[in-house]
Design a protein that fits this description.
Distance between the termini: 87 Å
Number of helices: 5
Radius of gyration: 27 Å
Shape: globular
Oligomer: single chain
Strand content: 35-45%
Length: about 400
Amino acid sequence: MKFQRRQLVAAMAGLMLVLSAGAASAMGGPSGAAVGMPAQGHIGEVIVNPYKIAPLTAIVRTGGYVVKNASVRVVPKKGGREIAYKVSDRQIRTHAGIPIAGLYADYLNTVEVSYTRVSADGKSEDFTDRLQFYAPPVFSISNGMPGQQRMFNVEVNKVDPGFEDRLYLVNSQLIPMAPQGARFVWNNPAGGALEWTINSQIGIIDTAGDVRWYLLNDLINDQSDPWTSGLMMGFQQTKDGALTWGFGQRWVKYDLMGREIFNRKLPPTYADFSHAYDNAENGHSFLRVSMADYRRGDDKRVHTVRDVIIEVDPDGGVVDDFRLYDILDPYRDTLIKALDQGAVCLNIDPAKAGQTLSYEESRDFIIFSYEFAEAQVLKAGYRLAALLNRLFR
């Protein structure tokens, strides 16, 4: 059967009209002066994992109202731990709704939110809504090996009285690491620690052993990309409640909802963040890094290995750096024992396990320490004159 061109064009045009009408009908078309999302309570819809990297969080949108004086209660499982808190109006404005954190994974959560709703005519009303919604299971990348389990399988043996409401941030490693990483090394010049790209597993656990928050970090921590790979370390909660930490070539700040405050690449003079990110009271921060291009006395140029501390201001500018290979005697016996690959896990201040530097606000100095099973502790309370004029500025 033969079709004339004009008939074929007309038939195709008619088909497109039918398909367009069907698509518009299915989608509902433009919403107009309304929002078509269903709401359970007296304000707006619930968005779970609103910033994509914290799956056990949610936001109850304002529904177009002014919402203030909010509080949240995540109803505990049987035998579980209650999480309840007040929400500032600032946080409601920032997130376009009431932020919820501390949900249970793979569970139909029940959450109570109380708030004051203000209408356009100025009428204020107080509500308490009881909402139910599902949060997904905890996800962990696979390392392709038989011994791996779901991260944070916790068995609680004892909880002392008065500690029942505690939450614990756990920063662990996937061992062995997933084979997507460790596929590259530094060049021009060589050296450094770029290939140490162990996978991170970050979560918050309550005293019943339940995961109440975890970081879906693969979205910002791609181990196949040299600029976003690296083990996440140095977690610290700041005065505003947000979290700071570093990994590989980056230092970052996110709030508990997963909202990015900043995600910065290290200044090009430096590389390979490691272990320590310490925030000072004047808004500056201290990061343990390495030199990206260091010319040695024999005129060779190398990436060094995690032997520099930099002080950065809130805008990311480098105020100063403290080069440990100049400050500490490299020929001291204790240091010689430390300066092998074990030095990646040096601590600064033995009393603060897991840290590699500690700023002592009350005493105005930085404490470094090297700790190893076969080496004595080197603890140097090193007063840095250049630091003193800035710490309380």
